[in-house]
Amino acid sequence: MVLSSDIVVTCxxxxxxxCADWVKPGADVINVGTTFIEQKDxxxxxxxGDLSRVAKRFSPVPGGIGPLSIAALxxxxxxxxxxxxxxxxxxxxxxxxxxxxxxxxxxxKDYDSALNFANKVNTMSSDLDHHANMTFRHKCxxxxxxxx
Length: 148
Prior knowledge:
alpha/beta, 4-stranded antiparallel beta sheet
């Protein structure tokens, strides 16, 4: 079925489920299905193989449609949180609204743990071309707060 399609949209979230060789030469591929693989420390596609050999156009992983998906998901999560607060008054107290954005403070037991987390956020932010504002607050023996 994939070989006869002019447009292929994947959204399985199952790495390697489809082979690039199955794509009809000249087809367009919208690669929505991405999965983070901890062993590779990277996002991977539903496709195995080199799509550039067969597809006329394709969305890369990472950096394809992810920024659009993330923006929509982020907007929906923020709206759900504020709707819940309005109806139930019970939203996690570390979230506050600041000029149309979300803010979160995360506590870590030590600076190395906070820095490791911040480095992962930075790497993913670079892949998405959207960087988070981060502030560290060192509390000596009481750990470190990372504000996003």
